[in-house]
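User:
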Amino acid sequence: MRKPPVPLPPLLPLLPFLSLLSFLSLLLSLTSAAPARAADNGSWSVYPVSSAVAARPYFYVSADPGQTVQDKVVVANKTDAPLTFRLYAADAYNTARDGGFAVKSPGEKMRGVGAWAVLPKDRVTVPGRATVTVPFTVRVPRGAEPGDHPGAIVALDERVDNGGGGVALGVQRAVGARVYLQVGGPALPGLAVENVQVVHHQPLVPGFGDSTATISYTLHNTGNVTLEPKVELKASGLFGRTLLTRDLEKLPSQLLPGQRVRLTERWTGAPRLDRAHVRLTATAKGTEESAKASFLAVPWLVVGAVAAAVAAGVWLLIRRRRTRPEGARGTARPAPTDRGPKLSRTAGG
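Assistant: Predicted structure:
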């Protein structure tokens, strides 16, 4: 399995006007290899115990339903003072912002590694410039679904950093070592491209500014294995003319099973006057899926001229109806007159 790139921590919103509310957020550092390049935030690191052959970058665990696997995790304190951590197992997911690898907080519902990994204690104190090795057990339920169940063993510093600078922002920091758990059974890769939308942007005056389009879409891992997706963008105009062909780069390095990620792509130099069709083709090992959308590119100047012509036509029609002379729609027919003989009847005595 290819090593995923180092993800960046999620950005936190600033809450400058909340003086009494502390916003708690979990910052996770989930980087590559161990121990020299362990998951690390500068103050502490977390990594698997090295085997007799070589250091392991992550926990790679294969187990069948009903099987139990044992392993050990190392927590290293890089500061001079002792540090106490909450140690827990967590499920992984893709962030909505960019599809990065992230793990759940302690209070969230766990369904995979976070529910199946058992640690002997939930807190550990590590002396300054020292390490502590903690064994743990992964008990895979008999009814576990086959496929990939990614997660992490996390060391969380429960102290809240208020930030300072007049900003009421509370932050908790954590570091986690990734766990790639694969449950035995059929591997079923599946990938879908959903909800493709195109928003076209034109300059008000043709020739003054770029014509661009923003393409948004959702990548959905519908299978039970982790995918490394690739997406090709193709755009065509009237009569099948090719307008654009591009391999997209802003993609998650790993799309976890069941996860959806909303992504956008900017198209600079989009057509100014055309009927364009956009097709996205997503591929990964063992799966391929496409979806498309269309949009009409019309300059604002043309739109304004058409709107003005329609408005003028409506105004002229209304004006003609108001100025039409009386009786123009036809002449009233006179009432019929009975010109036959009239009979007078007189009652006799």
